[in-house]
Amino acid sequence: MKFVKQLSKGVSDYGPALRFIFEHKLAWFFLVPIALNILLFIGGFAFVSELSNIIQSKILDFSHLENAHFWGAEVLTWILAASIWLATKLLFFFLFAYAGGYIVLIFMSPILAYLSEKTERILTGHTYPFDIQQLMRDVVRGILIALRNLFLELLIILAVFIVSLFPLIGWLISIISPIFLVVVAAYFYGFSFTDYVNERQKLSVKESVSFMKHNKGTITGNGLPFAIILLIPIVGLLLSGFMAIIAVVASVISVKDLSPLNSNKTNTILDSYEKD
Questions:
Q1: pLDDT per residue as tens, the chain (276 positions)
Q2: Per the domain annotation, does 14 fall within a domain?
Q3: Residue 148 maps to a domain
Q4: Checking CA distances to 204, which of 76, 212, 246, 269 falls within 20 to 30 Å?
């Protein structure tokens, strides 16, 4: 099957990508995820702690528990405060676990755009004159693509949930849905990694979508390791930034095999597969 063959190719490009990073002294890019993890967790915990204090204060003011004198009021107040603290922390981890991949893509968009261009330059010898406006366009497009993909993935998850409520077919869907949703997430992640290349080739978002659909196996393979590592509680979140660095290099390697990256003509990538 073409999809399975492409999928295997997309995943296997992670090995060459990792070697490429170290051989060409690009490992310093791994410092970015370290800084990002520190900022996200410090900022996230500070925000959640403040939110927890606000919720706790509002509930206690509403219930007047702090001024209550009945037996067990202090214990009840402590339990309520602890429950709010725990609930907000769990909510933070749940939201970050689900949307963490897209949060990483959004915050790392500038470094991923630059790394993608630098990888292409080393592989093909084709150079793009530094243009701050072009870099900003790459970053903005990367963020918009990530938000687009997050929205579409949410719609698919909602559709799967609704279908799973129906008898018989719902039971079957509930069995295969975990694997299906991981593959869907992998496709959208791979889309984000690869679109940096398509942007430099002057493809519109519509043209980029057409390219992704035609090469969906490779695109899904590029995003699959990133999607899988996010499934690991806590550790996955810490490692996702490092995996994004490898993934964006792997996507350039994959696309290089799909089309002539050293061409700067509009629709070069599309032309390469329309002749297949």
A1: 678 888 888 899 999 999 999 999 999 999 888 888 788 777 777 777 777 777 777 776 666 655 555 555 566 666 777 777 777 777 777 666 667 788 888 889 889 988 998 898 888 877 777 677 777 888 888 899 999 999 999 899 888 888 877 777 777 777 888 889 899 999 999 999 999 888 888 888 888 898 898 889 999 999 999 999 988 877 777 788 899 999 999 998 888 766 545 444 434 433 443 344
A2: yes
A3: yes
A4: 246
Torsion of CA 27, 30, 35, 40, to 10 degrees: 170
Supply the range of the domain harboring residue 102.
Answer: 2-33+98-274
Show Cβ contacts of residue 75 under 8 Å, excluding neighbours closer than 6 positions. none
Q: Can you give the pLDDT at residue 275?
A: 43
CA 224 – CA 5 distance, rounded (Å): 14
CB 244 within 8 A of CB 112: yes
Query: What's the structural domain count of the chain?
Result: 1
Tell me how far apart the terminal alpha carbons of the chain are, to the nearest angstrom: 16
Rounded CA-CA distance 127/250 in Å is: 19
- Based on C-alpha coordinates, what's the Rg of the chain? 23
Q: Is residue 80 part of a domain?
A: no
Q: Is the dihedral of CA 100, 152, 181, 212 positive or negative?
A: negative
Domain-located, residue 261: yes
